[in-house]
Amino acid sequence: SLLVFCSIYVVQTRSWSRPAAESGAMSSRLCGRALQTVRAPPAASSGRWTRTASSSSGRGSMNVFNREMKKRQRNWAAALRDGHQYDYLRDEVGSRVADRVYDIARTFPLALDIGAGKGHMAEHLHKDVVERLFLTDVSEKTLKQRKQTEIPTHCVLADEEFLPFKENTFDLVVSILWSLAVCCVTVQIQQVLKPDGVFIGAMVGGETLYELRCSLQLAETEREGGFSPHVSPYTAVTDLGNLLGQAGFNMLTVDTDDVQVHYPGITEVMTDLQGMGESNCAWNRKSMLHRDTILAAAAIYKEMYGNEDGSIPATFEILYMIGWKPHESQAKPAKRGSASVSFGDLSKLNQPPPPAQS
């Protein structure tokens, strides 16, 4: 088996204050080849759109999130008149993922953007790097608001956890993940990639919104004698490499970047999360948050984390990942026991050679 290398880098925290026509459609023949008709037979496609069936209603042992609730949240957010003002985080992360695509010196004939939303990543890509692109999202209203791009695209209405594509279809898969069963998604991404295809993605990490979570827990414990989760659970960076390796990826790279956004108060934090369509959708969530608890949490938030100017920070830990589907052309580790130098001799490398004997 191939040896899995996982490099982890930590990038310096970034912070800031809150603040036309689409390219040509893909041919129906190409869309038909890409869509998987066995697992989720598509309904009749109209132009650039394809609808697929979804089996997200079932609650299995690995089903942490209510996918129907997430779909309603995303549709509600997409219906907001001022919804564009909540796109700042996805736009920023999308540009950083696109930068990682440009670091790979090749052209990708066919790519897939999972959970594309309004095309936060596609707008940063060029057709000389990605020739054709599939966009998928669980929210039809969100996809209809996708941004202009020069790449020929095709939109597929599908759940991120139930990809309706054939195996070995895409040369590149990109994604910005949020509240998802990552283990299920990465396995499906590995399947739809061609051999030697690459997955480049980003997701929120386990330290995301720790200020909000801590403030709500302390306030709810004081006012109600206990606390319930009000923020979605996230994946820890220490687990991400293992999840990608178990899904079948190799030559892994994982790096983290903390993005800090400053808000006037806790109400604005929760309002923006709702506007992003990223409120808690876990099955064990508590739907009611009492007014007294919110007021107490606001006071705790400002006391523990508040800035001198009266604003409060909200930290988003962004995990970036790169993984390759195995192929025979990729570099392989040397056979066990083939080394010609012992680790015990490494300390002697800088020592001067012994004097020559006459």
From TrEMBL:
- A GO term for molecular function: S-adenosylmethionine-dependent methyltransferase activity
- Please provide, in alphabetical order, the Gene Ontology terms of the cellular component aspect for this entry: mitochondrion
Residue ranges of domain Methyltransferase type in the record: 112-200
Q: Where is this protein found? A: Mitochondrion
Q: Which Pfam families match?
A: Methyltransf_11
Principal localization reads mitochondrion
Q: Where is this region: Disordered?
A: 41-65, 330-358
Record keywords, A-Z: Methyltransferase, Mitochondrion, Oxidoreductase, Transferase, Transit peptide
| UniProt keyword NAD, yes or no | no
Family assignment? Belongs to the methyltransferase superfamily.
Can you say what this protein is called? Arginine-hydroxylase NDUFAF5, mitochondrial
Q: Which organism is it from?
A: Mastacembelus armatus (zig-zag eel)
